[in-house]
Structure formats: C-alpha cells, structure tokens
C-alpha cells in the first residue's frame, strides 16, 4: 500500500489533483461567501467554514458512490457491427458520460465567464436568505452542483493508477481533504489571487476538457472498442500531467512578464 502512495505517479497525481480541486473550488468559495454575507457579521465566518466542510463531506460520499459504479467492469451488452465492436459495462458508461459532461460543462463555463462573468454571482445574490438554516440549505445545493465537476475530475486523474480501486479512492479522498483544508485556511487570499489572475481559472476549466477527453478514450479502451479494425488505446496519465504542468509553467512566465511590464510603465 505504502509503495503505491510513495510512487512518483501517485504523488504527481495527488499534487495535480489537489491544485485542480483548489482552482475549481474558487467559484464554490465565491458563492458560499455571497450566501454568508447575507447573514449578520458574527455568523459569516462560521457559515463559510461549515459550507466548505459540507462540500468536503458531499464529495467524499459521492466518491464512494462513483467508485462503486466504476467497479462494475463486467460487460453486460455487446455491440457488434462490421466496423464497430463494443463490450458495454457500467464502468465504461460512467467514464464516457462523465467525460462528455466535463467537456460540455467546462466549455459552457468558459463561455459564460468570458461573456457573462457575473451571471451566476448575480443569481445567488438575488436569492433571499434570512436565517442561518436557509444559508446552510442554499450552500448544500451549491456544494452539490460543484461536487459533480470535482468528482469527475478526481476520477479522471486517478482511474487506472492502481489495480486496487481502494487505493485510487483513498488518493482521491486525500486530495479532496487537503484542498478543502487549504480553502478554509486561505479562502480570501486564494479568491483575491484568482480575481487578479482570472486566466488561472480559465486554464483550470481548459484542463477539464483534457480530462473529459481522456475519460472518453479510457471508456472506449475499457470496453475493448474496435473501430474499423483498430483497437482504441488508453491515453497514458503522464501525457496529462505533462500538459497541465507545461501550461501552468507558461502561465507563470506570462504572469512574471506582465508584472515586469507593469513595473516599467
């Protein structure tokens, strides 16, 4: 067990997933803060912390549920044509539709943030919250909506890392706990950083498109899909880690160049 968690693949997956969970959790922090700000000042911090803890609990519960579904690897139906062969399983279907959802959701979010950056915030602001209980209920709904992206991202980053699915589940839970803990401790600083550098969040959503595509190809691979006589292979996780790391490095360089230019001006 320890050999897996100390392996380079597991450590890299944990670091990358934790970073993505934090980036994707920014909207969650913003919406929880908006809901909390409708309450008296003395209750706001408590509601915000409770909201983030509820987000963690929801995500862990959903991780167990999704991990169970992904464990359904036995084919239950076969599609056979002269040009296409697929052995359908619960695992393949979850990964396939999860990948489609991530691609659709991330592209929609990018479009909305570019064209209507304050749309979701305004919707939350317009909702009436008069009590602590109402705020918690509203936050539970917000947490559930944002948990779906988080869970599918975690599955995409860890699926297939270990033959033991329990190890992958534990890795996902660790990443979720660490990311929520960091958000609780540094929520305001993280939000301020993203506000100053909105391209970071767009970059995070772009990573979801990559992860979604990888989930679809992995679903095809696990269902032993053959298209025109060619078997669909799985995309190695290392390619994904390299793409994310390289993109973040380029973004870091862009930030450094922009700061130097601003200082000169």
TrEMBL record:
Main location class: membrane
Sorted alphabetically, the Gene Ontology cellular component annotations on this record are: membrane
Provide the coiled-coil residue spans.
none
* Residue spans crossing the bilayer: 12-35, 47-70, 82-104, 135-157, 169-188, 200-222, 234-254
Task: State the annotated membrane topology for this chain.
Answer: Multi-pass membrane protein
Kindly indicate whether the keyword Transmembrane helix belongs to this entry.
yes
UniProt keywords (A-Z) are: Membrane, Transmembrane, Transmembrane helix
Q: Where in the cell is it found?
A: Membrane
Q: Which InterPro entries does this one have?
A: Integral_membrane_TerC (IPR005496)
Q: Which family does it belong to?
A: Belongs to the TerC family.
Q: What is this protein called?
A: TerC family protein
Q: Which organism is it from?
A: Aurantibacter aestuarii
């Amino acid at each position: 067990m320890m050999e897996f968690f100390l392996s380079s693949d597991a450590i890299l997956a944990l670091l990358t997933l934790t970073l993505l969970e934090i980036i994707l959790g920014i909207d969650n922090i913003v919406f929880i803060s908006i809901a909390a700000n409708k309450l008296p000042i003395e209750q706001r911090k408590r509601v915000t912390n409770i909201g983030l803890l509820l987000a963690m609990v929801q995500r862990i519960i959903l991780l167990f549920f999704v991990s169970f579904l992904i464990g359904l690897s036995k084919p239950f139906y076969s599609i056979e044509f002269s040009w296409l062969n697929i052995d359908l399983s619960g695992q393949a279907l979850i990964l396939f539709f999860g990948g489609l959802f991530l691609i659709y959701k991330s592209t929609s979010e990018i479009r909305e943030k570019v064209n209507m950056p304050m749309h979701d915030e305004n919707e939350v602001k317009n909702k009436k919250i008069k009590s602590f209980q109402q705020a918690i209920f509203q936050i539970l709904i917000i947490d559930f909506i944002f948990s779906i992206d988080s869970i599918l991202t975690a599955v995409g980053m860890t699926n297939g890392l270990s033959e033991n699915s329990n190890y992958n589940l534990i890795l996902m839970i660790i990443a979720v706990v660490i990311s929520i803990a960091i958000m609780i401790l540094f929520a305001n600083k993280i939000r301020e950083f993203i506000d100053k550098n909105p391209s970071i969040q767009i970059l995070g959503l772009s990573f979801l498109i990559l992860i979604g595509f990888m989930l679809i190809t992995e679903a095809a691979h696990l269902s032993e899909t053959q298209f025109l006589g060619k078997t669909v292979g799985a995309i190695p996780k290392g390619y994904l880690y390299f793409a994310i790391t390289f993109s973040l490095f380029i973004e870091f360089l862009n930030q450094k160049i922009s700061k130097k230019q601003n200082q000169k001006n």
